[in-house]
Write a structure and sequence with these properties.
Layout (H helix, E strand, L loop, with lengths): L3 H23 L3 E6 L7 E5 L2 E10 L3 H7 L6 H10 L4 H17 L8 E7 L6 H7 L13 E5 L8 E5 L1 H5 L6
Parallel strand pairs: 3-4, 4-5
Antiparallel strand pairs: 1-2, 2-3, 5-6
């Protein structure tokens, strides 16, 4: 669906956005993004002068929604599928898509000492409020490769980040989840 160049650009944008938001929220310095080869997480950076790997995922909903959001041409069949899909409540689509993404990523292995999962919401129908309401219902595996899981609420300059995992971090007041 995406070219490797476009995928890398989206990952880089998400990582850069996350670093900026994380620094604002926590005061911890994060610097220097570089891309990795497969078997390693998507990008790496430094947090407080220690290496940290970030696996980047984008939350669109379904493949059809992703095609629509990314501006891909939709044929008649795909357009009808999108129309049908949009009749399903946005909250249910968000819950299904986010749990599917979390389950998929939990089953992966990364050749690294420290890795965080950063999910960027690219679906304009889902807000910070929608995401916060789902937090207690999310199915986050107890055994998964991530030290922390963060969600960027959207792709705008007003985006926020929400800690989804670990539970202790997610309950801290400044993360609200």
């Amino acid at each position: 669906m995406q070219s490797n160049t476009e995928k890398r650009q989206l990952e880089h944008q998400a990582a850069k956005q996350f670093l900026r938001l994380y620094e604002q929220k926590t005061g911890q310095v994060m610097r220097h993004i570089w891309h990795n080869q497969p078997a390693k997480p998507d990008v790496s950076c430094y947090i407080n002068q220690q290496r940290l790997d970030l696996e980047i995922a984008h939350l669109y909903g379904s493949e059809v929604e992703a095609m629509h959001i990314l501006g891909r041409d939709l044929d008649d069949s795909t357009r009808q599928e999108l129309i049908s899909l949009l009749s399903t409540p946005a909250e249910l689509r968000l819950f299904t898509a986010l749990n599917r993404l979390l389950k998929n990523k939990a089953g992966k292995y990364y050749d690294t000492a420290r890795v965080w999962l950063v999910i960027r919401n690219l679906n304009p129908l889902w807000s910070t409020t929608d995401i916060l309401q789902l937090c207690p219902k999310l199915d986050i595996a107890l055994t998964q490769p991530f030290e922390q899981i963060w969600l960027i609420t959207d792709q705008t300059a007003t985006a926020d980040i929400i800690a989804l995992y670990p539970a202790k971090l997610a309950r801290q007041e400044h993360n609200r989840c």
